[in-house]
Amino acid sequence: MAAERGARLPGAASFWLGCLLLLGRRAPAGAARSNSAPPSPGASVRTFTPFHFLVEPADTLSVRGSSVVLNCSAYSEPPPKIEWKKDGTFLNLVSDDRRQLLADGSLFISSVVHSKHNKPDEGYYQCVATGDSLGTIVSRTAKLTVAGLPRFTSQPEPSSVYSGSTAILNCEVNADLVPFVRWEQNKQPLLLDDRVLKLPGGTLVIANATEGDGGLYRCVVESGGPPKYSEEAELQVLPDPEVSSNLVFLKQPSALVRVAGQRVVLPCVAAGLPAPTVRWRKQEEALDTASSERLTLLAGGSLEISDVTEDDAGIYFCVADNGNETIEASAELTVQTPPEFLKQPTNTYAHESMDIVFECEVAGKPTPTVKWVKNGDMVIPSDYFKIVKEHNLQVLGLVKSDEGFYQCIAENDFGNVQAGAQLIILEHDVAIPTLPPTSLTSATTDHLAPATTGPLPSAPRDVVASLVSTRFIKLTWRTPASEPHGDNLTYSVFYTREGVARERVENTSHPGEMQVTIQNLLPATVYLFRVTAQNKHGSGESSAPLRVETQPEVQLPGPAPNIRAHAASPTSITVTWETPLSGNGEIQNYKLYYMERGTEREQDVDVSSLSYTVNGLKKYTEYSFRVVAYNKHGPGVSTEDVAVRTLSDVPSAAPQNLSLEVRNSKSVMTHWQPPPPTTQNGQITGYKIRYRKASRKSDFAEALVPGTQLSQLIEGLDRGTEYNFRVAALTINGTGPATDWLSAETFESDLDETRVPEVPSSLHVRPLVTSIVVSWTPPENQNIVVRGYAIGYGVGSPHAQTIKVDYKQRYYTIENLDPSSHYVITLKAFNNVGEGIPLYESAVTRPHTDTSEVDLFVVNAPYTPVPDPTPMMPPVGVQASILSHDTIRLTWADNSLSKHQKITDSRYYTVRWKTNIPANTKYKNANATTLSYLVTGLKPNTLYEFSVMVTKGRRSSTWSMTAHGTTFELVPTSPPKDVTVVSKEGKPRTIIVNWQPPSEANGKITGYIIYYSTDVNAEIHDWVIEPVVGNRLTHQIQELTLDTPYYFKIQARNSKGMGPMSEAVQFRTPKADSSDKMPNDQASGSAGKGSRLPDLGSDYKPPMSGSNSPHGSPTSPLDSNMLLVVIVSAVATVVVVVTVAVLCTRRTTSHQKKKRAACKSVNGSHKYKGNSKDVKPPDLWIHHERLELKPIDKSPDPNPIMTDTPIPRNSQDITPVDNPLDGSAHQRRNSYRGHESEDSMSTLAGRRGMRPKMMMPFDSQPPQQSVRNTPSTDTMPASSSQTCCTDHQDPEGATSSSYLASSQEEDPGQSLPTAHVRPSHPLKSFAVPAIPPPGPPTYDPALPSTPLLSQQALNHHIHSVKTASIGTLGRSRPPVPVVVPSAPEVQETTRMLEDSESSYEPDELTKEMAHLEGLMKDLNAITTA
Known about the structure:
The chain has about 1400 residues and is mostly beta strands. Helices cover about 10% and strands about 35% of the residues.
């Protein structure tokens, strides 16, 4: 401030004048503060002058026309001058006839003026005191409020009240007039007492009404001028009707905001018959108004709190109860506090060029704002006046004009306060009287001793800036010439910005140090530095000014000020901030960082505005936030973290481990555990128990328990009735989800315990080598309480040892016995009355040499060791109930508890569990306080073993018998791994896909699906699929296009569904060359239409002019003998073709023609295996989404049944069928008939009424069936399942061995039906295999394309079952057995057909015949030549 007020000289003159002034300066002697005048060390030390307010104005409420006095008095010597400000402007009281200044400084307003449009007196007033040669101080501000014109917002209404009840009469006016309201009865002032009360809002309450309370009532407002009356209302007092009436609130409490120290009244008035009593509670704590000095229960039930404090804030509940019913109302009380000082500024001594800090700490609610005033003027923050640590004032580089009175003024919505301190700047040669306090900055603290007479040091030499940065400069120098050693010298560095007269100082930290670093400079700014040395005599000469300019800086934004965060909802938090004060360049955007408290993962989001709402957060969870601003240079300084917790919400999960314990015929004890901590979403305030009769599900009752209670006894139930129970958790937001209904049935009658139990109905013993297994049944009379059983045993006598077990137990193993010994065993039931009649049995333990097998009963018997006298008995009856793929509920009983299994002590149970895969798996443990536990986080389809032990104090039991449970399966969560694709040696168009099962199969893998395509980016439904059974880890795919990249994916499935696909694996098929012309390649040429070239050896070369070459490759000339062989072969081929055409044409129905036409007319988006010329009319289309059997012709059977027969597992699974020539059609139909299954019915087959028969690759069956006992195909007879007119041959000649064989035929003359799947996207055609040739079938034994299933019946007829998948691939379906007719007698033409391994469609035969006719013409031409 003073720096800005100082004179400024332009140009060089200013610079040199400044240098001369600096040369004459001396180092400061420090600064000190004091609350009172310190002892004067000399006449030159000035003392602090007392100057403060004795009385400050207070907030005042007045009415129009009345007089007002605003008090103010200040003390100083001489007395100060008092002035007044209104709304920040000085009042001119000299010419004001209504307002005048009293002798003590108070302001007197003789007549308050106030109207609707003219309010000259209402506002904020401040007293200003000025002392001669001292300075100026200002008082707190006081608000003068003028009550408005009386106006009723509600008026009393006629009403009636029963004698002894409570009545209320409303009278509401504007808030500033409430103090001026009074009541009249029959136009006479109404006297208030303990029974008749006026609430703070003006409402009149009359409790325990009597006849004298009847009359006419009105309220009066007297706010200056004539009083204003409300309408009159009559109150009638009626006699007590002596009948009950509903309980209602006449006045309910409402939310209040009050200032600490005020009186608070929470209204609550209830009425009803009988008359209610009212009690109050705060949160869950009942309030004792009778013994409290600050709490008073007023007439009608209202609560008065005197001298309210912040601790009184909270939610208050008013509960009215009249014995018949209870009603409740609540309201929140918020207590605010005006500002108060925790630390006030103190008087301070200082020298020029020093830095000082005035401290000011305040508290209040809401948080007060702080401003500083110097000599009555507002301090505006600048480079030299800064607000530090939120409220403190720092003054840098003091100058003489900074002297005066500084005041800290704190204010919020509920008040304001001020406190001040005086600053005195001493001359440089005057020592500061006291040591510097800790609030002074380190730059201005020095250690001067009282100066003595002697030589002063000369100026330090060679002052240089050894390091110049953007915001700091490092200065170094040499010792003065007068003291070359200078070990005892200290140094002070004075510096200032060029052109600014305010100088600052930095002292060295210890004697002899000749360097200092000046921090907190401005970039690209010129500073002047000079250094002085001090010895024991004082400060010496100053060095010449050193002019240094700091480096320019790419300024980044500073921290965004005033960052605030508040919860907007249970899952969102809104963060706001302001634009950073520092940094050049426009702020481009902000980055908001946030993280959950207790975690290390920080997230961020880009924000372009000054606020952002983060959604998707966890409920009732604390998060921290910070903001970083960005400009064109990059990110700036991060703000400090602010933490806030999301709002609470209703719990998102039900309580855990709900268990029921039937106590008797009329009560059930419920136990539970809280919901998981991450799902509670707030503080659990209670639990709601709902229960109902199982027979009346719509009628239920409720019970509420506090949040700390985890059990509740439900009483008053009916005998012998089944009840359903469920529990839900509550927060202040509401009720969360409830548990599943759990059932328990009360006893039919309460059991008798006035006598001992009867004898157990049976006792059985089974001796082993060193143990005896004892089992029994309870007494026949079930009406007597049995609390347990006592087992006695010993050699020759049953009284040597006694064991007691729980009443639920039915067997026990007595351990640690001697072999070959005779034991007598006794069993008695007991209760609280005593032990019943014993039952005796004897047994001889087996000798050591007895190695006989233990029977099933013994294997399954639980192991219960003989308890030590010290340990507790282990839990019994441990059971594992499977709930899901990762959750198992464990329940058990405790023999050491009472019959009702009620836990009344501090015992707890330890549950442990593990799986045996891998074998070295460690146990996991958890503790429970109930008789059940929910084990979560388990692996799917995994067998676990569980055991339980009980601990009470220092006593523990052994582990219980183990219980086992296997979690349910889950869909595979990982794809098949290690997918590799290789080319089959010698067959470039055949590839082999290999893989390994998924790492996380989560169940038994029942099948795989191989997807492949030439376009890796194609939609998945455009990929070709190959189904494979689950026990296969390799598969062949044939007839691919040469020199083409393919992409392969594999997907595994189990009984729960399909898992994820593997990553695509690329494989390029080999290029074609002369060595690649293998039979597999020929299958895609003319060989694909049924012609297989004979194996003529590797030296054979086709003829060059032979147009029958599959690929048109050039051939060498043939000799005449070879030509003759070709001619004869061609003629024979023509004969064979004509014969086949005639036979197949006769066997083709109109439905088959339609089928072939439909299969050929496919759209261009369909994907096929092989080249377009290789495509054959498909017999079976496989679609990704729906498979369907599509019959070609109708069955003559009028009542067909689709069978649901599984894949045969052994030779006995398939029923042998007699020869079709000997059996009837009815017998043949029933050969494979099973139970009707809706899933096994295809759409068309079920509608058309037939059992379709088909041939289909085994790979395409539903993969949920396992395949076992597959005999070798080498024993298959040559006559098995011969047929004609198949669509496609196996290039290897062995495909038939990959299918289930069949020789049963219903009608030799009937055409062979085929199976179709109606394709919405026909990507893949499965061709029906060719008929195997006579003799042993040949196939590649190293890697078959599909597994083989075959069997031989007793009568040596081979029956093969072909299966097809019905329904969708994503759903498990049973396979459908299909009977394939056996071939008729083998004719000569059929043998020729088999030799060629060909099958033709009519349109293909036409093409072949045309081709052969052309060939014959060429042969005739050659022969003629």
